[in-house]
Amino acid sequence: MKFVLIPVKEGTSSSEDSISVPAMIMNLISAIVLSIWGTSVIFPNLHGWGRFGVCVLTVIVMLVLTVIPIIGTILCIANGIAWIVVLWMLFGNISIIWLKWMLRIMSIILIVAFESVPVISSIENWRR
User: Fold this and answer.
1) Most CB within 10 Å of its CB: which of 20, 96, 98, 102?
2) What's the confidence (pLDDT) of residue 18?
3) What global pTM score does this model have?
């Protein structure tokens, strides 16, 4: 097996690099869950296409706000905390203690890895 080494020049990041795909997917899932829960709490009597339209509008607004540098950073941190809390509570019902803590720690590591990329890139863009 042979490898070819190609020199890489130092690149600069643009504003398009401020969001990553894994964090965008996690924010999409968070926005869907938030819109379903929010419409059931705020508009309990809204059903059918009206509720669907409000849910779609909420998801679109959340994804647009995710791309804005400072607000997107705040949303990524809030979504990361929410995911950690939800998974922490979900794994709390497991009776095998070592498995429960292993799943909790692995979920925290994955969530921090997914959500820290846009936060770090937005901090780098802000410092320039």
Assistant:
1) 20
2) 47
3) 0.62
Spans of all domains in the chain: 20-120
Longest CA–CA span in the chain (Å) reads 65
C-beta neighbour count of 68 within 10 angstroms = 14
CB neighbours of 50 closer than 8 A, spacing ≥ 6? Answer: 43
Cβ neighbours of 49 (radius 10 Å)? 8
User: Under DSSP, is residue 8 helix (H, G, I), strand (E, B) or coil?
Assistant: coil
| Token pair in block for residue 110 | 């994955």
Distances (CA, A) of 81 to 70, 91, 116: 17, 15, 12
For residue 77, what are its two tokens?
């941190």
Give the tens place of pLDDT for each residue, 6-22: 665 554 545 454 455 66
55, HSE (Cβ side, Cα atoms, 13 Å): 20
